[in-house]
Amino acid sequence: MLQVEGLTKSYKTGDSTLPILKGVSLLVEQGEFVAIMGPSGSGKSTFMNMLGCLDRPDTGSYILDGIEVSSLNDKQLAYVRNQKIGFVFQSFNLLARSTSLHNVELPMMYANVSRSERRNRATEALKRVGLGERMHHKPTQLSGGQKQRVAIARALVNRPAILLADEPTGNLDSRSGVEIMSIFQELHAQGVTIILVTHEMDIAQHAERIVTFKDGIIIRDERVEERVFSTPNDEVIVT
Amino acid sequence: MNFMESFYTALEGIWANKMRSALTMLGIIIGITSVIAVTALGEGGQKAINDEMEKFGQNTFNVFINWETKEKIESDDLTIDDAAVLGRISPAIEYIVPYSGTTIELKGPKKEERANLTATTADYFNIQKRMKVTKGRLFSDTDDKEQRAVVVLEDKLGEKLFGQMNPIGQRVRWGNNSLVVIGTYSEEKFKFDMGQETFGAVVPIQYYNSLLEEPSIHSFMGTAVDKASVNSAMQQAKQYLTRKHQKNDHYMVRSMQESVDQFNQLTGTLTLIFSIIAGISLVVGGVGVMNIMLVSVTERTREIGIRKALGARRSDILIQFLIESIIVCLIGGLVGVLCGLGIAALISHFANLPPLLSWNSVFIAFGFSSAIGIFFGLYPANKAAKLDPIEALRYE
Ligand SMILES: Nc1ncnc2c1ncn2[C@@H]1O[C@H](COP(=O)(O)OP(=O)(O)OP(=O)(O)O)[C@@H](O)[C@H]1O
Ligand SMILES: [Mg+2]
Fold first, then answer.
1. Distance CA A89, CA B237 (A)
2. For residue range B265-304, what is the model confidence (pLDDT) as tens digits?
3. Which of A53, B209, B253, B386 has its Cα between 20 and 30 A from that of A212?
4. Do A52 and B309 touch (CB under 8 A)?
5. Domain ranges (residues) in chain B
6. What are the residue boundaries of the ABC transporter domain, all occurrences included (chain A) (predicted)?
7. Cα separation, B118 vs B21, whole angstroms
8. Contact A110 B306 (CB under 8 A)
9. pLDDT of B71-115, one tens digit each?
10. Nearest atom, ligand 1, residue A18 CA
């Protein structure tokens, strides 16, 4: 499904190059729900950006859904971002001037989906994240949790192979965070592959597997023993 | 993303920044307005002149003494007989008359007035199609041959000299001479003789010459039988006079058409020069568009990042911004065309020119404004398209 081998990335600051990722390898199977943790500055976001094809690695290979991504040109990368990847950002990244509906339609516009189908699929996706009533609201008229749900609807609307989320609950209060996690779990139950970055253990425990970064390498990769389950109506179930 | 979607997206971008878009358009509006106004006025002026000329005497020509000749100029280089003979023998010539003109003071019972005196033969009235008899009659060949002291007055001059009195049969004084008014005429003026103060009086040339110590004729005025014959008529006149007077380069002929052509050339050049100046303001407007587009790209870096993260290709972003700049320029162009035509109409109204909608310049203006939109929009649009997605997303 997703296979990363020996990924490295360094940033030039002034005349010194700072290695951020120092050979990261990771295998994620279809339908898995993975949480990435680690201290600040350990390279989690850098890694996620590589997975999301927003940034290119220096060396290493990255195979997504059978495609060797590091060999793709600009246009092909745009296609992969559009069709294979759904990305949820900590800061939502919605178009401020557009309604929820238009924001969710956007990825389909770049996929040349017809107007009416776009409308239908966007409406459906918004209903799926519980925002059927907020379709014509602009981001400024939505709460943080609602904004993030619009972003999730947008990420899912082209039926991507994988859903990437970099601290999706980072800007939310704990209640909204739990709501978002319940949506992720529901999506996971429907078979969506998810990789999520978080600082909070109780968020991470919603996943099946936790990968820990430190100083640009993976130091731990383990199954979650005590999974947390959240339901949309806010009850937290611990098993 | 297909074209219509890009178009809507671009419209949204423009609408979201109404004020800024309007200010950007202003530069284009001013440029296009001046180009359109200048060319419309230029072409309008030319058309007016040509129309006038169609109406009156497109077949007319004049014969003069060549002022640059090395040969001695004498008072009998052009004679009344020459004109008469030419009229008889030259098949291309319809009418040809001797012509002398001067400014004189005419004294009537009411007051003394300045007048443009024309001394000529009766056929003059056949050449000057603009002149219409309003009272009495024009003078005849007999009046001319007998050297009768008669005069035909322009009706406005008659009013000035005689007031309410009927001038026909009355006398006017010119120095020591007394002339009988036999008729009055009205003359449809060229549209461009604005506010002329002096009016005309026509007398038989034989009478006029009889008053002079050494009569001499200024020029001949003639018409050809048709438009195609103007050149041969002029050649025949010139050849005849040259042969008759045994000269070489003594005579000069000039058709009304040549004068009009020369005028057209002049106004054409002027229009071109003004258009170039106006065009420069258009380029300045274009630079304004580029400037604002660059600001817009910088301001919307994050939006571009989001679009790229969601799968927008370079070409999608490029087209979005390019369409935006083209739309701004086209709207500016449209407003500019309307303003330009408005200004041209206003000026032509006050300058008494017929207004002219020049489709050429409208198409050129639209072509120009979209070209400017593309040319000055391309660099900012390309800059937007080339943005790195992750850097654009990080932009604050
Ligand atoms: N464009 C850049 N130029 C230079 N250094 C960068 C750049 N982007 C990231 N870095 C550096 O790379 C390191 C890793 O950053 P990254 O954002 O991946 O960390 P993180 O694990 O996501 O941290 P956090 O948990 O705080 O989000 C940081 O030290 C950061 O300073
Ligand atoms: Mg981070």
1. 94
2. 888 888 888 888 888 888 888 888 899 899 989 999 999 9
3. A53
4. yes
5. 3-53+261-394, 71-248
6. 2-239
7. 63
8. no
9. 888 888 899 999 999 989 999 999 999 999 999 999 988 788 999
10. 5
